[in-house]
Design goal:
By secondary structure, the chain is α/β, with parallel strands linked by helices. The chain is 35% helix and 22% strand. Helix 6 links the parallel strand 6 and strand 7.
């Protein structure tokens, strides 16, 4: 495809009161964009108005990324053919990292389009940085199974793989199931395995703590409904 199209991958805040973690050059990219493909249109509009108060929202085209429906990907290709400058925004953190935007980015790669990833907060990397665990070898496992038996099986698989490969395992959970997850972890992992609970990253109540399973058994924090990410290294 011969086109002047460009795709900006625009990070969003993890905590909406922590705009200071976003670099100033994001605004320059936003001002270049003509079309936005976003995970949630309402929150993306609000976010961009926080970055750029003078922005006239209705002057831009908006497309919501839910799943990679054929209609959405076809529309994305059409915008590329028109030579548009496109911004992709996820709900929190960096587009393409544990985010549905990766499908659109793959299309841009196939079409040999210029893609500009911009610097911003990633809860995965920030938690890993602060955990004290292996940052040379790590794996993001996403959400663990909801079924308890399947979840226990997966946790043990991740723990065994961590020990075998000397790697850090990173995963997330729906906030209202955080406490159930942490209890399952401490009841099914080896006492010497290190477990990091990273809560409210970049927020006012940010707390990132790594302890052994044995140490966590003395007192587990109540993190129900709090944004969190978890790391494990056996």
């Amino acid at each position: 495809m011969t086109t002047n199209a460009k795709v900006y991958l625009i990070p969003a805040f993890i905590d909406e009161d922590a705009l200071q973690v976003l670099p100033a050059y994001l605004l320059e990219a936003v001002k270049e964009c003509q079309v936005f493909f976003v995970e949630n249109e309402r929150s993306a509009r609000r976010y961009l108005k926080m970055l750029w108060k003078e922005m006239i929202i209705d002057q831009y085209e908006w497309f919501a990324i839910h799943k990679a429906e054929e209609k959405l990907t076809d529309e994305f290709r059409q915008q590329l053919k028109k030579g548009k400058t496109i911004g992709i925004i996820s709900e929190a953190g960096c587009p393409g990292i544990a985010d549905p935007g990766q499908v659109l980015i793959a299309i841009a790669q196939q079409e040999n389009i210029t893609i500009k990833p911009l610097v911003g907060p990633s809860s995965i990397l920030l938690a890993l940085m602060a955990s004290g665990m292996n940052g040379q070898q790590f794996q993001f496992a996403g959400y663990l199974p909801i079924d308890q038996q399947e979840r226990i099986k997966k946790i043990k698989e991740l723990e065994n793989e961590s020990q075998k490969k000397n790697c850090t395992q990173i995963f997330i959970e729906t906030p209202y199931r955080n406490n159930q997850l942490t209890e399952t972890i401490i009841n099914n992992c080896k006492s010497t395995t290190r477990f990091c609970i990273a809560v409210d990253i970049t927020g006012k109540e940010e707390n990132i703590r790594t302890k052994t399973i044995e140490e966590w058994k003395k007192k587990l924090p109540d993190i129900n409904k709090k944004p969190a990410i978890f790391l494990m290294q056996a």
